[in-house]
Model the fold of this input.
Amino acid sequence: MTDWRDVSSRLGRYTFVGVLTLALFIGLSNGLPYLEIVQPGIATGVAIVASGVFNYSFHRLYTFGSVRSVASSLPRYVLLLLTNAFLGSIFVSASISWLKIEPLVANLACAAAITLLSFLVMRSKVM
Done:
């Protein structure tokens, strides 16, 4: 039987870690070029890697309290990210071209759907 209080608590932690991950990404991708430390493209690459490591680590430890080995969960996490990128690009492209939805709206809808689905997959299959 599902304990909905536990699911709700985990979803709250999942959202909190997601917001922190986004803040880290924005901070690094925009802050490093602003400080003239690195070029914008390199800063984005650094931000993607750093936010990915942060996101995986904090979801593993804080959100889900995973007991699976890193060797087991990390490849699943990477596969989930690649799947999200693939499906997200198809969803947004189709929404814009076929349904004539504005790109911002399509991306927001995609982000909401991916967030919820990723939570469910991470909870049951990844972590």
Q: What stands out?
A: Residues 68-127 form one domain. The chain has two domains: 1-65, 68-127. The chain has a mean pLDDT of 93. Residues 53 and 82 are 15 Å apart (CA to CA).
